[in-house]
Amino acid sequence: MKLDISKAQYVDLAQILGTRVEKMPYTLRLLSENHLRHVGYAADLTHAFDAWMSGRNTDFEFRFMPNRLLMHDTTCTPALADIAALRDVLAEHGGDPAALTPELPIEVSVDHSIAVDVYGQRGAALQNAKTEIARNKERYAFMKWASANLQGVHVNPPGTGIMHTINLEQLASVLQRGPDGLFHPDMMLGTDSHTPMINGIGVLAWGVGGLEAESIMFGQPVSIAMPSVVGVELIGALPDKVFATDLALVVTHRLRELGVTGNFVEFFGQGVSTLSADERAVIANMAPEYGASTGYFPVDHQTINFLKRTGRPTEEIERIEPIFKQMKLWFDPDARPIFNRQIQIDLSQIGPTLAGPRRPQDSCHPSEVQARVEEAIQRPLSDKAYGDLPDGAIAIAAITSCTNTSDPALLVAAGLVAQKAYELGLAVPSWVKTSLAPGSPSAKKLLERAELLGPLSRMGFDIVGFGCTTCIGNSGPLSGNVEDALSQGAAVCAIVSGNRNFPGRIHPKLDLGFLASPPLVVAYALVGKIDGDIWSDPIGQNDMGDPVYLRDIWPSKSEIASVLKKGLRSDEVRDEFARASNSADWDEISCTQSAQFPWDPSSRSLRRPKFARVSPSKLGTYSAAPLMVLGDDMTTDHISPAGLISPKSAAGQWLIERGADPNNLNVFASYRGNWEVMLRGLFTNRLATNYLCETASPSVTVVEDIGEMPVFSAAEALDDLGTSKIILAGERYGMGSSRDWAAKGVALLGCRAIIARSFERIHRTNLI
Hints:
The protein is an alpha/beta fold. It is 37% helix and 15% strand.
C-alpha cells in the first residue's frame, strides 16, 4: 500500500521504520526519506533494513531524486552541447526541440577557467578576469544561450567563487519546503567529484559524471543499491596549531588503506561535535580522494552556527532543529549506528601533515618530505645550483581550491603566518610563483578587515581570482629560470592547499607536488625549497641575523579566533556575492534567443557532438584488438586532456590550422564543447604509459602490420580493417576528476569495452 503523506508535514521515519531508525546510519535515513517521499512504498524498505541489520544480503534499490543539480563551466559545456545537439536531432525527426528541457533546477558556476597568468601584484585578479573573459567569450555565450533557453538553468558569472563554496555559502538550505507544503532535507548532486563538500553541513550529496547528470536533469531517478556504509568514529579534539587540512589528509590516508571505493562514509562519535562546520567541509571535500561516494556529517548545532555566519534567513534557520529532531535526522554524538565497517581516529593524535609527492593519500609529516622527494626522483637532493635555483626548489606555492579556502580559519592562519614573517624580515625567494585564490569574494573582505590582505600581498600572495586556478592545473606559465632548471634535471616541486597532486596535475611540467594547509603553503614559500624538516629546522633569518623557526610565526587557535571575531560579518557573505554577480563584462556577452543553438561551422570552441544521433545497437559477441594497454592508477587526468595546449600537439595543430594564435591556445578545459580538439588530446599526458609501445610518446600506439601512430589515427586504421577495439588497464582506472570526456573520448575512438582490474565509481558510471 502506498503511504499517504498528503496531510503530513514531513516523512515520519520513526513511524514508518519503527525502532530500526535508531540503529541506521544517518545517510541511510536520508536515502530512506527521499525514497519514501518519491516512491511512497515502505514494505520493501523495512524488509531490506531487517536483512541489512542482520548482515544478510539484500537486492533492494533506493530510488533517489535530488532537489537540484550543481555544475561548473567545464562539465556543463559538454553536457549542454549534448542537449543542444539532441534538440537538433529531435527537430530533424519532426519533434519540438523546446520540449527537451531540464526538470530540475541547475546552478552553474564559472570557476574552472580562470588561470594564474598575472600574480604577485595588486590588480592581478582584475587582469586575470579580463583575460578569462577574452579567452572564453564564445563558450560563455553558449552558456548564456543555455540559461536563456533551457528551463531552470542559471549561470553564476565569473568572479562569484568556486562552485562548492557557492553551494556552502549561498545555495544550500539544509531544510526545504516543497510546493505540497512537505518539509524535507536538502539533497543534491553535482557534476564534480568534490560535491560531497556540502556533506560538511549535513546536506547529502555526491558527485556524478556529466553523462549521468544529463539523464537526472530530465527527471530520471538514480537507482542506488543498498550501499556499504563505513563509520569513522572521531574521538578527542584537534590539538592547538593543528588544522582541518591535517585531519583531512590523515582521513584520506586511513580510508584509502581501508578501501572504501564506492562506499558511503559517515562520521560519528563525540569528536564530531568538536569540529566546526567549516572544518567538517574540508574533510568531506576529500571524499573522492579517499574513494568514497560521500563523507557525511549529520546536522547539529555546528550546522546552525554556520548558517548564521553566512547570513541565512532567521526563519529558515529556526525551523531546522525541531523538524530534524522529529525526523530523527539530528545528530546524536552518543549514538552508535550499525555500520558495515568502522574505524576510529583520535583527533588528539593528529599532527602537521602533508600529502605527496604524487598522490593525495600518501600523507606524511614535514620531517619526511625530503625523503619522499628523493624516493620519487631516485636520487638524493644535491647541493648543485641550477642558475639561482637549488635542487628541490619550490616553483609554485598556491593557496587555492575549495577544499581549504572555504574555511575562513585556514585563510586567517595563512595571513597570520605572512604577517609574522614580514615583521621578522623574511621574504619569499624570487623563483617561487605565489598565488591566493579564495573560494568566495567575501574572503577578500574578511582578510581586509582582519588587516591580513596586506601582509599576504607583501609575501606575494595577492589575490589572483576567485576560482579553482592552480588546483585544477590552471597555474599559468612557470618562470624562465624554473624552465631552465627543469631542462637541466633539477628536482622542482609545487605545494598547494588543493586536493590532488597527480604528476602533471598542478602544472604539466611538474611531476612533484605536495598538498598542505594554507599556512604551511606560506611557510614553504618562505623557505623556497624541499629540504630538511620545516617543522624543526630554521626557515630563515631575521633582520638581526638570528634564525627564525616555524614555531615563531605559527598561529594558535586563540589568535585565529580573535582575528575571525574581528573579520567575519554575516551580511557581507551575501552582499559580496551579489556584487560579484553584477558583472558588466558578463552582461556584455550576447546570446541567441532560440530553441536550437546556432552552431558555427568555423568555431574552434564548439562543435555539434558527433555522438548525438540515432544509432543502431552494438551489442553482441565479437573479437577485438587492444588499442592501448595501460597500468594502475590511470586517472582521468591521464585519459582526458587537461592543462595548456601545446602548439606542437595534434590538438594545437588543428586549432592553428583554423586560425588560432599559436602563443595563446588556452587550456583543454575551454574546448570540452569541441570533440575534434578533445579527441586529439586523449592519452597525451606525458606520464601515461602504453605498454604496447612503452618507449613511444603516450599518445602513440601500435597497429599490427602497420606500425606506430597517434591513438586517434590508430582507431581509424583499425576501423578500416574492420577490427573492433578495446582498452586494457590495471587497478583504479578512472580515479580523479569526474570528467565525462574520459568516457566520451574512448567512445569516439570506437572502443567496444574497457577491461580493467578495478574502476573508480564516477568514471565507471560515465562509461556505462
